[in-house]
Amino acid sequence: MADWDLRKLHILRTLRERGTVTATAETLHMTPSAVSQQLTNLSKQLGVELLRAQGRRVRLTDAARLVLRHAEAVFEQLERADAELAAHLRGEAGEVRVGAFSTAVPALVVPAVTALRASRPGIAVRVREAEAQEVYELLAAGEVDLALSLAAQAPSAVDPRFTRVPLFADPLDVALPGDHPLARAERLRLADLAAEPWIFGAGGPWSDITRGACEAAGFRPHQAHAAAGWPAILAMVEAGMGIALVPRMAAVPRGGVAMRELRADRPVRHVVAAVRRGAGEDGAVGTVLTALRDAADGRPGTPGH
């Protein structure tokens, strides 16, 4: 197989365009003797005659024109590669793998991806739903590039493996049966619900969040039922089996459920993003992170809304 040398092919291409060795040397900031030497070496590498003397000038042989015809396809592909690489470095192209907990997918990730399709069509986002512990394992293993979780479930802010970025303070509203006496009460406080039967998970982060919010309001919640999925929790609320704290991101309207905003003692949960430390916020990952921030800024409950 012939030894194709892109630098020497570029010199040959420039000679075709400029017409003389002297003009080629000036264009490429080389000496004429260096141009001649490089083209002589290319001729030896390819095993064909590339130039013939024509008076005081040289002309390209048919073999040289054949070589350049094929080389043009290579140069064209390299131009495309340069353009794509530049777009990647500007954050306008590339693939970003996002791992996110379930309620963050429709609330944050989908709006961010929708916006990116219009503004950055060169960026492909691949989404993987996973719980917090798994999503950080995936991030550490390099299987996702960006992770979304609750701050309470995220590794420590000083974990040397990751950089954490606050995204959103998600308010916790209370779900009451539609006919509950407090369903239309003014200035509802969490402390007003101390005697109610509560529905929340048997363990894990959401159980901790519910218990912590209630205890901060001055009481320990009586757990009437345990459930982890929001459809199950809201169905039980609708049936009058108890009440529940529901993050605004997760709330799905149900005719028999009254969602009430808490005022004086309104609890929140904090949503954070994380990238591997050193990945920074440049390139495609930074562009996706910005889109997630914009999606978070547009949600009710974000500071300023």
Descriptive report:
The structure is a single chain. With about 300 residues, this protein is of the alpha/beta class. The chain is about 40% helix and about 25% strand. Strands 3, 4, 5, 6, 9, 10 and 11 form a seven-stranded mixed sheet that branches. The protein has a two-stranded antiparallel ribbon with strand order 1-2. About 30% of the residues are buried. This is LysR family transcriptional regulator.
Mean pLDDT: 86
User: What are the secondary-structure elements, in order, as H or E?
Assistant: HHHEEHEHEHEEEHEHEEEH
Low-confidence stretches: 301-305
Oligomer: single chain
Q: What structural class do the secondary elements suggest?
A: alpha/beta
Rg on CA atoms, Å: 32 Å
Biggest β-sheet, characterized? 7 strands, mixed
β-strand amount: 15-25%
Question: In brief, what are we looking at here?
Answer:
By secondary structure, the protein is of the alpha/beta class. Helix content is 41%, strand content 23%. Residues 4-61 form the HTH lysR-type domain.
